[in-house]
Design a protein that fits this description.
1002 residues; alpha+beta; six-stranded mixed β-sheet; 27 helices; 21% strand; globular; binds FE2/S2 (inorganic) cluster
Length: 1002
């Protein structure tokens, strides 16, 4: 049917189908700022302005839009400088998003900006709660909403004509280390609008960080301007001619053999280009885990198999001219199954006689995999003499804890596009954290040599570990090989819940021996970990559960010198969707039991919870206890921890949270609702450490090339998931080269052009890839100085200088006598004038260490003792992540991480029915926090200078996932005097705990 649509004040005459949505039509017309997040409109990433209201374009027929005014993000502002054509620049809301650090992955950004515009057009002076309400229909999994809210309030002020402080002025506090702030202290900005939300974190700076020009500054993200305009930067934003759409037929059974598949009707359907079953493609066993070679886990997966192992497992692939035809074809495939017994409970998997989930002869064992026992991995780590430690204890504390399966829920689903290029090389454009691992792992699966595969990683709309998996690229690739045509495969939201990866659920037993004075004599953890149907990341995730949590508490006195720690785990196969990597990588599973247990022990012994933890916590200069015993399936190598800022973090967060006024204060406990007296307030703490990269294994790489105008191309294989890693890597290079960030053109990543990098995981990019960038920049700087000295010395007058006499700053090479050569002069001389040479360098780096960041996490809650309902009121996190390269992006990581972790604490959980079918299948069933549901989020950075990195950094991305749940659990205990040992701490579980009134100690 023919329609006339008015989009951004431009009229379009279109042909569309009667049932076609406005979303589909907008994207077909090239308005790629409208994004797919889910089918129900619950993510809100499909938001456009319809007349003056924000609406979900995927819930509206295109025909309904005729005669109305549609505004998309492309109708707002644009980059001010378009060559000879100058524009009005970005809209004030877009500008504020760029300046406030409100953009992380940027996938939700166009929708948030449009929702904000609809609000401000109606209400130019909104309150913070009105702003939160206005954008509550647009889910963001990255930011914690603090900076988007601030950006909208800032834009409103600009649009009203109010004057504002620049970002970084008046918002960040530099705190003295010896004088923590008192509770309730507020910034003095003179800002007229009342704000609860700050852009910049509080900082306790390390003395070594002061001389930097770019490092340590709240620079704008290098990709912010394109993302805020909704440019076609993501995987699905490019659609080659002749592109087919892929769909996957998924198993309705948790465990079954495929006896027969009849695809004849599906193949005969008009518009179907290919239908593939296990009989049509090579049978190659592999691991979907995106890890370095050799994969530290079993090879137990096939692109398609004659057996299905969970509800949602793959049965057949279809490629068709349209999505609708592909979906229709799925319904025409007839499958005859032999249904097998299914194991849904991990404890049952280990029972003698349990049905074997992996009986395929191609299975490749890794270390301690035992498929005959349904064991994907077995971990046995003993440090010191644990039995002796227990024997020497005055008291033994034992308890069991349960942690749930949860989903990454990045707003951009898994998506990839494959096509043959003109050289008959297979191009895989994919939203992945690990492009180089995708290429290496898929080559044998596709029967192609690595050199005939090119993987392009465009912008990623969030990953959180879910895209550290070679999860679905093979589907599109097989279909491109079969059809010779480009194929796009994009997960539905339901597929994200039923056919993607998740956090390993675990049942964890703790046993701790303690002296009366609070000295831990021995500490033991046993984890029964459920990897689901495949063993991807099974060993390494579960290993980290013990490795990075149990290492924190070594004991005190003699025990500090020789800690007694045991970590055992069984990682079992079940007939449930596979678990995998999820931000935190096993460590949040360790801290729920460990820190809940520490709280119980402190209370039972009548010790101060902060003092008890700090008494036993690891110190700088001590060995990481696990470094002598375990290293993700590789040879362990002893490692000394150089920097521990934990005690300083505790001091800062203790003051900021008001701990001293609240903990143990009965009046405060009852202050939430003194009249009805059904509400109790509570405050809790958790202390955590993480890791930074995987030592002696994972490599980062970078190359830097100088251009004619003195700018630089920075090519990195690292992948920015929205973390801001492109920005901080460019900041480090700019610092070394003495140029503004604007002069660094960062590109990541393309396996044909960018140096090898292991990708984004294990909190490694700033540390590993950052060192590679710094080394490459140092090499380029040396070349620049040689050229500059030559130019300077060639001039008639002045002293002769050696390259080492020069320094780079302000786009110049500067001599001690004040003479200078500009970067442009150096570039032109090098490229065009004399002894011509391209100034460039490549460097790579593998770390011999994994310096842990540390943090103190405080949480404040209000619990209704009648109903069990809980409100988390405030989260304060003080973090030692070494030197902070960019406080804006780093604090965004902490805020977003805390909110994501809050879901783990109180509401997120994947559950299955008795037949193994997922109960949570959309973003309605599976609740992630909206902008109007967020507690106070406060970030404090306590800097240390980590000597193993050129700029002193440690990791920041994963540690906010670790402490929120146990801090909330401890706060609940503080509020109600009863323990919830299973997270998430839902109202029902809290209500039951109140009824059972478990004692607070074993
Ligand atoms: S920035 Fe909002 S989803 Fe990533």
């Amino acid at each position: 049917m023919k329609l006339q649509l008015t989009i951004n004040a431009k009229t379009h005459e279109i042909d569309c189908l009667p049932g076609e949505t406005l979303f589909t039509v907008l994207r077909r017309l090239g308005y790629y700022g409208v994004k797919f997040g889910d089918e129900q409109g619950l993510s809100g990433s499909d938001t456009v302005i319809f007349d003056s209201k924000p609406v979900n374009s995927s819930l509206m027929l295109a025909a309904q839009a005729a005669g109305h005014l549609i505004v998309t993000i492309e109708g707002l502002g644009e980059h001010p400088d378009q060559g000879w054509r100058k524009t009005d620049g970005l809209h004030p809301i877009q500008q504020a998003f760029v300046e406030s650090g409100a953009i992380q992955c940027g996938y939700c950004t166009p929708a948030q900006v449009l929702a904000a515009k609809a609000l401000l057009d109606k209400n130019p002076n909104p309150s913070e709660s009105e702003v939160r309400q206005a954008i509550s229909g647009v889910l963001c999994r990255c930011t914690g909403y603090a900076k988007p809210v601030k950006a909208i309030l800032q834009a409103a002020a600009v649009m009203r004509g109010d004057s504002l402080p620049e970002t970084g002025q008046g918002w960040g506090w530099i705190l003295p280390d010896d004088q923590p702030p008192s509770s309730g202290q507020t910034p003095t900005s003179g800002f007229t609008t009342e704000l609860q939300t700050r852009v910049m974190p509080k900082m306790v700076v390390a003395p070594q960080s002061s001389p930097y020009q770019t490092v340590g500054k709240p620079e704008k993200k290098v990709d912010a301007i394109k993302l805020v305009q909704g440019k076609p930067a993501f995987t699905a934003d490019i659609e080659p001619r002749g592109m087919l759409h892929a769909k996957v037929l998924r198993s309705p059974h948790a465990h079954a053999r495929i006896k027969n598949i009849d695809t004849s009707q599906a193949r005969a359907l008009d518009g179907v280009a290919a239908v593939l079953t296990w009989q049509d493609i090579p049978r190659v066993v592999y691991s979907t885990a995106g890890q370095s070679d050799p994969i530290p886990g079993p090879l137990d997966a096939f692109s398609l198999d004659n057996k299905v192992r969970f509800v949602g497992d793959r049965v057949a692939f279809v490629a068709a001219e349209t999505l609708e035809i592909a979906e229709a074809a799925l319904k025409l495939i007839e499958v005859e199954y032999e249904v097998l017994d299914a194991i849904l409970d991990p404890a049952m998997a280990m029972q003698p006689g349990a049905i074997r989930i992996h009986d395929e002869p191609e299975y490749v064992n890794f270390a301690d995999s035992h498929p005959e026992k349904n064991l994907a991995a077995e971990i046995r780590i003993d440090i010191g003499n644990v039995e002796k430690g227990f024997a020497e204890a005055d008291q033994i504390f034992e308890a069991e804890y349960v942690v749930p399966k949860v989903q990454q829920a990045h707003i951009e689903p898994h998506v990839c596009l494959t096509y043959w290029d003109e050289d008959d090389r297979l191009v895989i454009r994919t939203s992945t954290q690990v492009p180089f691992h995708v290429r290496r792992i898929l080559a044998p699966v596709l029967k192609l040599p690595i050199k005939r595969i090119r993987v392009i990683k465009p912008r990623i709309g969030g990953g959180f570990g879910g895209k550290q998996e070679v999860l679905m690229e093979d589907v599109a690739a097989h279909l491109t090989i079969a059809t010779r045509r480009p194929v796009l495969y994009e997960y539905t939201r339901e597929e994200e819940f039923t056919g993607a990866r998740s956090r390993h659920p675990m049942r964890v037993r703790m046993k701790t021996g303690v002296k009366r004075d609070g000295t831990i004599t021995a500490n033991e953890m046993y984890a029964l970990s459920d990897t689901g149907a495949f063993g991807c990341h099974a060993l390494t995730v579960t290993g980290n559960t013990g490795h990075k949590s149990m290492a924190l508490y070594v004991g005190d006195g003699e025990y500090r010198k020789a800690p007694n720690i045991r970590f055992y785990a069984d990682v079992v196969y079940t007939n449930t969707p596979p678990a995998g990597a999820f931000r935190g990588y096993g460590v949040p599973q360790g801290y729920w039991p460990l820190d809940r247990h520490m709280e119980k022990i402190a209370r039972a012994l009548g010790l101060d919870p902060l003092d008890f933890r700090l008494k036993n916590a690891i110190h700088a200069g001590e060995f990481h206890p696990f470094s002598t015993a375990w290293n993700e399936g590789r040879e362990p190598r002893p490692e000394i921890i150089n920097t521990v800022g934990l005690e300083r973090c505790v001091a800062q967060a203790r003051a900021a949270s008001g701990w001293d006024d609240k903990f143990g204060n009965e009046t405060w406990h009852r202050s939430a609702d003194p009249l009805t007296s059904t509400k109790r307030k509570g405050i809790g703490v958790a202390m955590v450490m993480q890791g930074t990269a995987i030592p002696y294994l994972d490599m980062g790489g970078a190359s830097i090339k100088m251009n004619d105008d003195g700018s630089f191309n920075l090519l990195v294989g690292a992948t920015d998931l929205g973390t801001g890693s492109d920005t901080v890597l460019a900041q480090m290079a700019a610092e070394v080269l003495g140029v503004p960030l604007d002069d660094m053109i960062c590109y990541s990543s393309d396996t044909d052009f960018t140096p090898f990098d292991k990708g984004a995981y294990a909190s490694s990019t700033t540390y590993i890839s950052g060192t590679a960038v710094s080394n490459a920049a140092q090499d380029v700087a040396e070349q620049i100085k040689i050229r500059a000295a030559k130019i300077l010395n060639a001039s008639a007058a002045g002293k002769v200088y050696a390259p080492g006499d020069l320094r780079l700053a302000g786009r110049q090479a500067l001599a001690p006598d004040g003479r200078a050569v500009s970067m442009t002069e150096i570039a032109l001389d090098s490229l065009h004038h004399s002894e011509q040479k391209q100034i460039m360098a490549v460097a790579s780096y593998v770390s011999p260490s994994s310096p842990p960041p540390f943090a103190a996490q405080f949480a404040e809650v209000t619990v209704d003792i009648e109903t069990g309902s809980i409100t988390v009121d405030n989260l304060v996190m003080a973090v030692d992540s070494g030197i902070i390269i960019n406080p804006l992006t780093a604090s965004g990581q902490i805020e977003g991480g805390m909110l994501q972790a809050l879901g783990y604490a109180v509401c997120e959980e994947l559950r299955y029915d008795a037949l193994g079918a997922a109960r949570e299948r959309d973003l309605g069933d599976y609740h992630i926090f909206r902008a109007d549901e967020v507690p106070g989020l406060e970030t404090i950075f306590v800097e240390t200078f980590e000597p193993s990195h050129p700029f002193g950094v440690k990791a920041v991305a994963e540690i906010p996932m670790d402490g929120v749940a146990p801090a909330v659990g401890n706060a609940i205990l503080d509020a109600i005097g009863a323990n919830v040992d299973q997270n998430p701490a839902t109202p029902e579980r809290i209500w039951r705990a109140i009824r059972e009134q478990k004692p607070s100690a074993s």
